[in-house]
Amino acid sequence: MKTKRVVIITGGLGFLGSYFSYQLIKKKFKVIILDNKKIVSSSEKKLIKKCFIYENLDIVNEKKVINFYNKLLKKKIYPNYLINNATIDSVPKVMEKKYQLPSLDDWNNELAVSLTGSYLMIKFFGEQMMKKKFGKIINIGSDLSVIAPNQDLYSSYKNFIKPVTYSVIKHGILGMTKYFASLYATNNVQVNMLSPGPIFNHQKLSFIQKLLNFIPMKRMASREDLFKGLIFLMDDKNPYITGQNIIIDGGRTII
Fold this sequence. Notes:
Blueprint lengths: L5 E5 L4 H12 L3 E6 L6 H9 L2 E4 L5 H13 L6 E4 L19 H29 L2 E6 L23 H21 L4 E8 L8 H8 L10 H12 L10 E4 L7
Parallel strand pairs: 1-2, 1-4, 2-3, 4-5, 5-6, 6-7
Helix pairs in contact: 3-4, 4-5
C-alpha cells in the first residue's frame, strides 16, 4: 500500500483536532484519527467517515497502542507524520466551588493523557520513522509553555483559575520536543512544537476584552492561523527545522 502523506493525529475529534483533521483531508493527506471519546456527535461521525482510519484508542494504555501499531504494520501502513494533540484542556468556566489545587488523581490523569500519551506515540511511531529515515512529529503546545498564566484574566469566570497541571504539561511537552529532536536528528526525523496563544471559541466578551490588552495584534488566534503554522512545519520544503517551539500568539509572549 502506498502510504506517503499518512498522518496520525491524537485528539482528532476535539475543537482543534477536528479542524486540523478536516483541513488535512482537504489537502489529500491520509488522516488517521485517534480519540477516546465515549460519545461521538453527528458532525464527528461525518469526520470519521471522511478520514482514512478512525480508532477509539486510549493512548495512555501501552498495550492498546502496541496493538494499534501492529495493526497498521500488518497492513503495511507507515505513518510519516505524527501530530500529538491529545490533552485535557481547562476551559475557562464558572465554578460552583472555590478553586482548589488538583487532586492527585486529576494530576496523574491530566499528565498521563498529554505527556505519557505523547511519549508512547513517539516511542512506537517515532521510532518507526527513525528506522525509515523520514518523519515529522509536531507536538501541540501552548503559549503557557514559555509563560505562566495571568490568573487575573479569568476574573470573568467565578472561582476559576488556570490549573497548575496545564503549565506543567506544556513545559514538559517542550522538553520532550527538544529531547526527541536531538535524538532523531541524524535520521531525518524533525520534531517541533506548535504553541498557540488563546484561540477564539465564543468566550465571554469581558474575558476577550481583557485578554486583548495583552495581545499586540489585538485579536485572538483562529484555528486557521494555527493550521497555517502546522502546514508550514509539515511541508517537505522545510527539512532543516527541528527542536523549535513555534509560538502563534499575535505577539502576546514578547512583551
